[in-house]
């Protein structure tokens, strides 16, 4: 399954284009697996992964990998 390209409205990134936005319903609601919150696909992206140092970014990626691995273990 191919991931959606970044969804943008008014030049701002939206959650619907994020790799961490999953379980999307037909109505556009889904879950951010990083923040563990229910959002809609057109919610403005959090920006938690922009403007960070390489070390901070790698730490976040490690956390995301652990979250995704845990989720895959429960399937």
Which helices and strands, and how do they pair?
Layout: E1 8-9, E2 12-13, E3 21-22, E4 29-32, E5 37-40, H1 54-73
Antiparallel strand pairs: 1-2, 3-4, 4-5
Mind explaining what this structure looks like?
It is built from 1 helix and 5 strands, in the order βββββα. A hairpin with a 4-residue loop joins β4 and β5. It is flat. It has 75 residues and is an alpha+beta fold. The protein starts with 7 loop residues before the first strand and ends with a helix. The strands form 2 sheets. Strands 3-4-5 form a 3-stranded antiparallel sheet, with no helix packed on it. The protein has a two-stranded antiparallel sheet with strand order 1-2. Helices cover 27% and strands 19% of the residues.
Care to give the gist of this entry?
It contains one helix and five strands.
Termini gap: 17 Å
Q: How many separate helices?
A: 1
Low-confidence stretches: 1-9
Return the string of H and E elements.
EEEEEH
Structural class category:
alpha+beta
Radius of gyration: 13 Å
Biggest β-sheet: strands ordered side by side in the sheet: 3-4-5
- C-alpha geometry: flat
- The percent range for strand residues is 15-25%
Number of strands: 5
Largest sheet: 3 strands, antiparallel
Residue-averaged pLDDT: 76
């Amino acid at each position: 399954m191919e991931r959606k390209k970044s969804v943008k409205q008014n030049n701002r990134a939206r959650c619907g284009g994020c790799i961490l936005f999953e379980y999307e319903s037909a109505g556009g609601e889904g879950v951010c697996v990083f923040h563990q919150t229910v959002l809609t696909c057109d919610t403005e992206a959090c920006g938690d992964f922009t403007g960070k140092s390489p070390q901070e970014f790698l730490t976040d990626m490690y956390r995301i990998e652990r979250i995704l691995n845990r989720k895959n273990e429960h399937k």
